[in-house]
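hey
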């Protein structure tokens, strides 16, 4: 009876080893697949972030150019005409943009826009409106 019991125990151990080897093989294959999926996801995310930066820079440039007008003494010269300022450094534009989040910053922007509009209207006055002709002119 002892030899058959030992043979059965050895068969059980061999079966357990075979099961563990199968689990190890499947786990390794799954981990390889997960690693490849993660690398592909990282590449996709990197491309999406790069595109997002490009998309954000496009409207940020004109905003930065407009915000430069808010700096005292920078937006206008002696004649009162707006000056096209060079685009400031990223840090400077970032500071101007962050000032837009305050009520005071937004008010300054509105005031600068109103002043710019007033200058445009002063340079190009609207034609006077005449009363509509209700009857033919008398000669």
């Amino acid at each position: 009876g002892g030899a058959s019991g030992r043979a059965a125990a050895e068969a059980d151990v061999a079966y357990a080893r075979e099961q563990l080897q199968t689990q190890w093989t499947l786990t390794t294959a799954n981990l390889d697949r997960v690693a490849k999926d993660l690398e592909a996801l990282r590449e996709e995310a990197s491309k999406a972030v790069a595109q997002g930066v490009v998309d954000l820079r496009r409207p940020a440039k004109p905003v930065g150019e407009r915000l430069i007008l808010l700096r005292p003494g920078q937006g206008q010269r002696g004649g009162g005409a707006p000056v096209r300022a060079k685009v400031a450094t990223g840090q400077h534009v970032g500071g101007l943009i962050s000032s837009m989040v305050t009520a005071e910053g937004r008010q300054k922007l509105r005031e600068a826009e109103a002043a710019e509009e007033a200058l445009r209207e002063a340079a190009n006055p609207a034609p006077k409106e005449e009363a509509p002709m209700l009857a033919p002119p008398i000669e």
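Helices lie at 2-67, 90-99, 103-123. The first helix runs from residue 2 to 67.
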